[in-house]
Specification:
With 217 residues, the protein is an alpha/beta fold. The chain contains 7 helices and 7 strands, in the order H-H-E-E-E-H-E-H-E-H-H-E-E-H.
Length: 217
């Protein structure tokens, strides 16, 4: 009886580990869409659904060169967005380093762009962003560091990118946005991925997902 139970356990464990291996090696060929702050994935089945689905709305900010940057600058491009501030001593350093990794990876890929929005615009002027970008070898043709009206930046972060986790819990409009998320947006302005931007290993996942989005075009 004991031998029989052990045999059953061995078979069960063997099946479990095989299924886990299959799950981790399975390649996904389509990304979900996101339209809520809890980032619940949504799989769309028709063009009509897609037309009505959440998109990043119109915006207008100023980049580190003093040039106007709007959502039309990103139409037809896959891009990664994040929120930061230049004097941040903690997660923003890791975020910027990992965004720089993406800049290097896609330096010659004209389909990919990057945008970082300051959440401290009263300090992060165009001049400050320019100096910050120069010190960190930010290529303004690939990667926009943008500033603007605080209310508009925060509204975009909270309602469009769902980038303020604390606000989702407190609804405190006076709270400071401090998020580690990197957000992947497709060529039509839909959110297609969210990643822990402080983790270098997440860059590999973004790379894989970008390749999937390219195949959609």
């Amino acid at each position: 009886m004991l031998i029989k139970k052990i045999s059953i356990l061995i078979i069960f464990l063997g099946s479990f580990f095989i299924s886990c291996k299959q799950e981790t090696t399975t390649k996904i060929d389509k990304l979900p869409y996101y339209n809520t702050s809890d980032f619940t994935p949504t799989w769309l089945s028709s063009e009509d659904e897609l037309k009505k689905f959440h998109k990043i709305p119109n915006f207008k900010f100023t980049n580190q060169l003093g040039n106007e940057v709007t959502n039309t600058n990103f139409k037809g491009y896959i891009y990664v967005a994040n929120f930061f501030f230049t004097t941040c001593p903690s997660i923003c350093i890791k975020l910027t380093n990992n965004m720089h990794m993406l800049q290097d990876i896609y330096s010659k890929d004209e389909e990919i762009k990057l945008i970082s929005h300051t959440v401290f615009p009263s300090y992060d002027t165009v001049e400050v962003l320019k100096e910050y970008g120069d010190l960190r070898d930010v290529n303004p043709k690939k990667w926009h560091l943008v500033t603007g009206e605080k209310e508009k930046i925060y509204k975009l972060a909270r309602e469009a990118y769902f980038a303020d986790e604390i606000y989702n819990e407190t609804n405190d409009e006076n709270g400071f946005i401090h998020t580690e998320n990197l957000i992947l947006v497709d060529k039509d302005g839909h959110i297609r991925g969210v990643y822990k931007g402080t983790l270098p290993e997440e860059i590999k996942r973004i790379e894989r997902h970008i390749e999937i989005l390219k195949k959609e075009s």
